[in-house]
């Protein structure tokens, strides 16, 4: 395609074979199939397991078998691609298209999608059935001289003066003309209604209901422009109806001022992205006479022109173009129908509740809306910026009216009537081939059904939402408030995502996080967009009409050069979204969902919850500007999906979460209560406001005998195994003060195991044997260790066969074998689900639940063992600056530490640390490498249990001007670009001019001339987390405070915050009042 902009086109990434034939998604920077790690543009259509050829996709390789289940990433890509195909192809998967496109009707020729056929023979067989074109029989509006040519330099020049283009166009026109002539000769009721029917009033119909018609009253005011309030009652043909001759003449008269032209296939304009075949009223520059022009998008015939289509694809293209010519001609037909003193927008017809004359015609003739089975918004290599759908999988007829075109109404079902016997034979043959292929695929992929069921029940199956998250991240990087708002609008308007049911509730939580991360600026108004495109008469038109004209409706003045004036209406500004409101809604959503116990993926919950925590921390300093949106779709992990076992549902403690954002409230749901988080530590070390965990509720005024590993370790208690499998806990500190042991310290006689402190074993010193005996006889027994219990082990303890009766609440296990409650209702409840989760009533307000849990605390005997987490790949790790890490030193914001450059989340591990909780509190929020190396081997972190705790890596903070030559800065994030050309050369070529600079303004600017560059830089920003090496240090300018203002903040109990003056700096110390320290 020649460059029409006068500037060099940016380099393109190579296309996969399927993308070469069927196009790649537009805006590849924020689409699942764009910017893939292999550096290739993908279509999303390629079948896998087995991978089929993009042209010969009927052929399935022989002797294939995939007995082993593919890895999780491959499964997610397989199911995602098939979901993409179903959305694009009206429910069809690419692998199924081979059977449907194998035979052509009526010749019986093969469609051209198999290497195992004689292509030359099939072509000759098909040629015997080719339509014989008779241009003399055509309606005047279809003839060659009714085609205009768009101005501009194109390759090829899209004009009917090109015999190759006209050769393909005339076949489609012949098909359209034959259909038209049959309908007119039969005096079809639809034409009788449109051409001869009387206009009447039509009350705007309700959703899915037919309009109500009343006769038109002379002198009535015309309908409001742009709002169709007229209609046509469906008019059958009878003896008094006009003759076939009158039908032909009227049609010719109403279309005598109609011409066709092509779009310009450029980056902007009506042909590329507003519509690909449109009809509008247009004015000639000289005469100002109204004519009607249909713009046909050249992508409809590009595949035919290039000769790249199979027989089946070519026939689909011919029919699609024919139906489009008819569809758009019907609009022209109405444009020139005159009704005295009545403005005539398109009418409702019969029972149709949508005003769309082209679709109405298709419904009357074909039974529904005729659509190509292919995407309409894809790009093709070599035609940068242009829609490409010239390669067709086929055609289909959809129900019309439908939800897409009538604002959420219910559609009526229309069935096609296949009445011909030979058509039945073809359909049966296709059905048999189709079913045989499906059985073959079941043999090849025996694991498919089970794995797909897992994926389908997970959040990963919401492909539209995943794409919208990618789009939001991209526009967020560009600071594009208009498109960010559109993403939020899409989320808010999707009924599946607004209902907190099943695995999908997590998307509503993410939606609120999105809302909380944007600026509070309003969406700016959009001015009216006006496009003007000039079209000149073709040589065929010039030769057929004097001075290049065609007759007009009013007179015979010549009409030469025609322009299209079209565009988009202006849009007013949209009020701002307040970010902190999004944060409040997010936590409310999480709390409500937690109480409703809707299961979902742990990975999604943790990823979204971490993004929310990051946002809360960011908003402490930045209330209204853009904040980091750190959520990323996690790697697929169906093993962590909760489907039936409610006890396996792991959601961060809502009490802790709620108090983190609402510090003035007290929680009642959780088993442990923490102090609210007043703020981060200072860079100089621990501040006076450091938080400490309060004593767990189960240890307060209760005779509990069970303790966690950390609780025992912090108290320096010793563990000892019992014969029954339990673990006793002893306090030996008093024993060590006795004379025989006074020369031994606690560390001399104990070792720290994975469960906690134990006495040294195998020591030949007889003092150890004596100490062990004295411990059991004279030591102070403190109770039992809370043991890890698998869900299966808990279920076995159902009170039968001599086993105790266990029940669980959240992650806690209770032995209720001898439990006696205060009421019979409580006794019944604890025994309702033996070995499983306590099942409270849906109407429980929380009070009865809290009362029962309080009674059960002395019976606490174990902890449900969580399923092992999955190690995150290095490229997916989050990044933490030291200042960001400092916020995560408490249970509310997360207890993180850095070890050897990586960040570990210890929040869920602190209760089970063999060294106790206290030592972990000393390293949370900062680098703990030295303390870790003092007690542990570096190989420990490579073990699966600990590697799963790794969530990020540490990066440095720099000054604004500290940028190296092989780096680029976008939105204060510093990326290393070294050797990036080896990873993605086309993208490197686009962004390399900005290496060594801060390119933020280039990304967030709204200069339309740099739209491609801006999009590519934003794509790099979103997809290159693994290349982040630093963040720029932000400088906050503090306001000046007068002495009078300072005097107002002089007491903790005043109406104002409590401030303190240290030197010349003012500090808010209100939160210190609530700290135990």
TrEMBL record:
<keyword id="KW-0349">Heme</keyword>
<dbReference type="InterPro" id="IPR036400">
    <property type="entry name" value="Cyt_B5-like_heme/steroid_sf"/>
</dbReference>
<dbReference type="InterPro" id="IPR050668">
    <property type="entry name" value="Cytochrome_b5"/>
</dbReference>
<dbReference type="GO" id="GO:0020037">
    <property type="term" value="F:heme binding"/>
</dbReference>
<dbReference type="GO" id="GO:0016020">
    <property type="term" value="C:membrane"/>
</dbReference>
<feature type="compositionally biased region" description="Polar residues">
    <location>
        <begin position="1"/>
        <end position="10"/>
    </location>
</feature>
<keyword id="KW-0408">Iron</keyword>
<protein>
    <recommendedName>
        <fullName>Cytochrome b5 heme-binding domain-containing protein</fullName>
    </recommendedName>
</protein>
<dbReference type="GO" id="GO:0046872">
    <property type="term" value="F:metal ion binding"/>
</dbReference>
<feature type="domain" description="Cytochrome b5 heme-binding">
    <location>
        <begin position="877"/>
        <end position="955"/>
    </location>
</feature>
<comment type="similarity">
    <text>Belongs to the cytochrome b5 family.</text>
</comment>
<dbReference type="Pfam" id="PF00173">
    <property type="entry name" value="Cyt-b5"/>
</dbReference>
<dbReference type="InterPro" id="IPR018506">
    <property type="entry name" value="Cyt_B5_heme-BS"/>
</dbReference>
<keyword id="KW-0479">Metal-binding</keyword>
<feature type="region of interest" description="Disordered">
    <location>
        <begin position="1"/>
        <end position="20"/>
    </location>
</feature>
<dbReference type="InterPro" id="IPR001199">
    <property type="entry name" value="Cyt_B5-like_heme/steroid-bd"/>
</dbReference>
